[in-house]
Amino acid sequence: MKKIIRFLRSMQFGMILLVLVIACSVAGSLIVQQREPMEYVNRYGEGAARVILALQLNDVFSSVYFLVLMAALCLNLTLCSIVRLPRTVKATAQLLSRAESAPVEHELAPQQVEKVSTYLKQNHYRLREKDGRKIYVKNLIGFYGSFFTHLSFLLILVVGALAVVTATVTDQTVMPGETLTLDDDTTITVESFQIEDDTGLLDYASKIVMRSADGMKEAAREIRVNEPMSFEGYKVYQQTYGTAGSVEIHNLVNGASEVMHLTESCFLTLDGVDGLFFQALYPGYVKAEDGTVTLITSTSGAYSDPVYDVLSVAEGSMSPVLAFPGETLTIGDVSFTFLEPTSYPGLRIKHVSTAVLGALYAVFALMVAGLYLCFFMVPTAVAVTENGYTIVSPKPSTGLIIGLNACLEEEET
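Above: the chain's sequence. Below: its structure in token form.
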């Protein structure tokens, strides 16, 4: 049993887990997550899609094996930090004990001994006297650097998991040029959206601007799949996309006009009787030699030759119409001008509470403090007697020795 526990808390086991977690994280970053199976077939091919779905790489961070890895890593860090704490406490007592009994390593004249004591005091070493021996100590808290570092890694996993569990997730579609107001009055403005880049390659990108509720903070960024934007506890992802029909409705009686975006079937009317029934928007068409038109029903890119499939409803009769951008259809006192379709993004908005976010920042601060203690706060004890001094430290004390030698040489000159 002891061998099992020793392995579970070993650095080798921890490194293996970290490598596996990093590998899963890289896969989750490179492969779009939580999409329909057909999208993986379109993106990566049927063979690769089968592998992705079989290994749950389409939802890595919720997969069973990733959760098991995280639980094992938590166990490893717990054993490394909590179980080793008594050893850390003993290390301080052992350092002092060694300093009290260690033989003199650097013999000095009486006046040099006093010079060494003065130097140590000036460099903030604390004095402890026992059995006629002066023990100057510094950075004893450095023993706890490893403990704080391991503890911070554990807390990062725990608080990070809490952030994932407690985060609120909403999906919203926003037309370019429109502004979405969130529950706390933070706003998201979609300035532009594209399905393809300038070369015609697929590139789903939204340029968004976020403003805080008080208007004091603002940030802009172009987001893509797996390239979200973070702002004031929010993370906004480019999740989906769509293409809406755009129709300018003009009232011929009073001159009023309005542009409407059409994402689903609807009846556009002023009097509830006559009007335009929008059925569907098609991305393109093929025209045969005899003049017949075959509609293209799907595309993975932008709509190259969009076609509006509508019904003209007037005086109790309905007439099917295929309309193209730039055409105008007049029904009674209303004209309908078909515009170029509008591509729009579907945004996934995640929000983490301020308390959890603050806890996460605090844990990162603890990790930085732990690493600082490990590398820059080296526990040191200097035993000074009437014959000389001895340095006791878990790491080489080259800097201290150089400083003491320089101090003594300065006295001689």
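The CA atoms of residues 239 and 328 lie 34 Å apart.
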